[in-house]
Design brief:
The complex is a heterodimer of chains A (252) and B (424). Chain A is of the alpha+beta class. Helix content of chain A is 16%, strand content 47%. Chain A has a single domain, classed as Clam (outer membrane lipoprotein receptor (LolB), chain A), CATH 2.50.20.10. In chain A, strand 9 and strand 10 form a beta hairpin. The N and C termini of chain A lie far apart (88 Å). In chain B, 52% of the residues lie in helices and 20% in strands. The two termini of chain B are 32 Å apart. The chains are: A alpha+beta (252), B alpha+beta (424). At the A-B interface, strand 6 of A face strand 7 and strand 8 of B.
């Protein structure tokens, strides 16, 4: 009996190797191709979104409703609809500058640079998170790191690293739904490797010919709290947005 | 006996002058050091208490953990009823609510666009209530440089240097950009009623003083306060009483659950002040010991030299029948007299300098311009009853020690050998 064990080792190794080969993806796709499909699913000339942010803090939660007109990374306009204290506050983002208008003060204030990475309304989203529609393939190199399930959905796990542009999240790890090309989970990192933010998609809906994440929990890893739930109430792609909306005149 | 010793000391100056000068200088330095440390510490305590810590302070437990960051999202809710309760429970203290906040002051141009911005450290206090102690605590009436104190809603004070840097003065509009208690953006216009200078670098760097009701509205903090400060009404800060007050308050609310329950802390427990004050006290004690040691060594040396010079005198006194103990005691008595007189002279000199430093002070503004501790730019000595006696401690101790050590040699003189010594 003692002599039979060494004789079995090659067979066990062969079975193990075969199992590993079978368990691995038959054909791991190119990372850039997966990223292109993600951009294709959500990409549009512009988007008009009505959303709710449920901000959960140490003293309870509150809901902020807003409507945003977003054109790529460069142009964005947001108007806050609720609660009454925030109603009428408007924000215009053009490239790396953001003007905010509050009716109570009747002032237009410029926010720029690293201030854009600050929290919006005390939420876990930054101004950049909320007001930019990024084409990931233009900003990141992608490598498929593996395959995992998120809930019952099989996903590609992609490691993204910045192509060198000065962006908020130097690295990202994303879990992309293999069938619907939508990101279901994400971890965003600083250049140092420090985890800055996580997102967790709780609901995906079909809108015309696209799959859209309609309920996402953002969690700022650098602060306490249970995170902010971002709920898309309505989303319109390629809408007719008048040019004057992306001017400072539209703030007042 | 004392008369005999005094005559000896006066007639033989080499016996008394050096020890006298040594003791006088040591005692004077001790008195000046004591009065100066006393004044600096008092100034730190008083200005820190008035502007930041109170004699005691009530905060939420969560706020207290991060108090240095003034986290208004963790502020006390129901501040009105808490304040009334404190006034009932502790009638010997004045209680006043405050909100500390940070942000940017944005100054608009003629088109309403941003002309200039600057970071601001804000303090919201009860300015408009005539019964509020804040005007006195912050010494606002004397601090006004330009304009006047706020009288109407929406009026604020800015530190004078900060206002000058922004290029604004009384009557100008200044917009505060900050965050509400819940983290939302605040953009609120105020009118600058006046500019102030407190003579405290931290406050004069970029401060905004606003009425607490205005800021409650701006920061969405209805009936809330970041902190409630308590001040002993009848006298300055009393460390032990403040500590026992805080302990009593906290133990009575031990069962109150939750991170937003109120917690009281004494001045010493805040911002590392306890360590600073204890450190200062230790430094001063070390200084005192150092003076005693140095003076003792100098006096010991002087005593040894004196013993050599008075070798013959001691021999004759011993030969005449004076016993060693008596001679030794007379030497110590001599030293004590010199110590007493030197201490008295040193104390007089030290008090004169201390009174001068108490009246004129010493402007350390340029050294404190980047300080984060709330302390007045002009530090002053403070003469207290203890200043009149503290100089005698090293003066008497050092002369006693010096003489006691140098005089031991007397016991080595053997009476039987004295005759031989004289023959030689």
């Amino acid at each position: 009996m003692r002599h039979r064990i060494p004789l079995c080792l090659p067979a066990v190794a062969a079975i193990g190797l075969a199992a590993a080969v079978l368990a691995a993806p038959a054909q791991a796709p190119d990372g850039a191709a997966v990223l292109r499909r993600v951009d294709q699913n959500m990409g549009a000339d512009n988007k008009v979104t009505t959303s709710e942010m449920i901000i959960r803090g140490r003293r309870g939660s509150r809901t902020v409703t807003s409507k945003s007109w977003i054109q790529g990374r460069a142009k964005s306009f947001t108007e806050y609809l609720d609660p009454p204290r925030e109603r009428g506050t408007k924000m215009l983002k053009l490239e790396d500058q953001l003007w905010t208008y509050t009716p109570a003060s009747d002032r237009t204030i410029l926010i720029s640079g690293h201030m854009l990475r600050q929290s919006v309304m005390g939420s876990d989203l930054s101004y950049e998170d909320m007001m930019e529609d990024q084409r990931l393939v233009a900003l990141y190199d992608a490598v498929v790191a593996g395959e995992e399930r998120v809930g019952d959905r099989p996903c590609w796990v992609l490691d993204l690293s910045s192509r060198g542009a000065e962006i908020a999240y130097y690295k990202r790890k994303i879990w992309v739904d293999q069938e619907r090309d939508v990101i279901l989970r994400e971890a965003r990192f600083a250049k140092s490797g420090k985890l800055l933010k996580t997102t967790d998609v709780r609901n995906v809906e079909r809108m015309k010919d696209r799959w859209v994440s309609t309920r996402v929990v953002f969690k700022d890893a650098l602060k306490d709290g249970e995170g902010t739930e971002f709920i898309v109430k309505a989303m319109e792609f390629n809408a007719a947005i008048p040019d004057h909306l992306f001017t400072k005149a539209s703030l007042r | 006996m004392i008369r005999f010793l005094l005559k000896g000391l006066l007639r033989d100056r080499s016996r008394s002058l050096l020890p006298f000068i040594t003791v006088m200088l040591g005692s004077a330095l001790t008195v000046i050091g004591f009065s100066w440390t006393n004044g600096a510490m008092s100034s730190m305590i008083e200005s820190g208490a008035r502007f930041s810590t109170g004699h005691v302070k009530v905060m939420s437990r969560a706020y207290a953990k991060e108090a240095d960051q003034a986290p208004n999202d963790l502020a006390l809710a129901g501040a009105g009823s808490l304040l009334a309760g404190l006034a009932r429970e502790y009638p010997n203290l004045d209680w006043t609510p405050r909100i500390a906040f940070g942000g940017l002051i944005d100054v608009p141009d003629a088109q309403g666009e941003t002309r200039v911005q600057g970071p601001v450290a804000g303090l919201a206090v009860n300015l408009r209530d005539p019964g509020s102690p804040e005007r006195g605590l912050l010494n606002l009436d004397k601090a006004v440089v330009r304009g006047r104190l706020p009288e109407r809603p929406g009026e604020i004070l800015l530190s004078d240097g900060f206002a000058a840097r922004l290029g604004i003065g009384p009557g100008a509009t200044a917009t505060l950009i900050s965050a509400t208690m819940y983290g939302s953006l605040v953009v609120q216009n105020f009118v600058v009623a006046g500019t102030v200078r407190f003579g405290i670098a931290v406050m004069d760097r970029g401060a905004m003083i606003a009425d607490i009701d205005d800021m409650r509205g701006a920061l969405d903090m209805a009936d809330s306060a970041g902190e409630i400060l308590g001040f002993f009404r009848d006298s300055p800060y009393r460390r032990d009483e403040a500590a026992s007050l805080a302990a009593g308050f906290n133990s009575a609310r031990h069962g109150d659950g939750g991170e937003f329950a109120p917690r009281m802390v004494s001045l010493h427990e805040q911002s590392g002040l306890a360590q600073t004050l204890d450190f200062a006290a230790q430094v001063y004690s070390l200084m005192l010991v150092f003076f005693i040691l140095v003076m003792s060594i100098v006096l010991w040396n002087a005593g040894l030299m004196s013993s050599l010079r008075r070798y013959g005198e001691f021999g004759i006194r011993l030969a005449l029948g004076e016993d060693h103990g008596r001679l030794y005691r007379s030497l110590i008595a001599e030293g004590t007299i010199v110590g007493f007189l030197g201490s008295a002279a040193g104390t007089a000199l030290g008090l004169a300098v201390s009174y001068y430093l108490q009246n004129t002070g010493f402007d350390l503004g340029s050294m404190l311009k980047n300080a984060s501790v709330i302390v007045t730019d002009v530090l002053r000595a403070r003469v207290t009853p203890a200043s009149y006696v503290i100089g005698f401690v090293p003066g008497l101790a050092a002369t006693f020690l010096g003489k006691a050590v140098s005089g031991i040699g007397i016991y080595r003189r053997e009476t039987s050998r004295l005759a031989k010594e004289f023959e030689g």
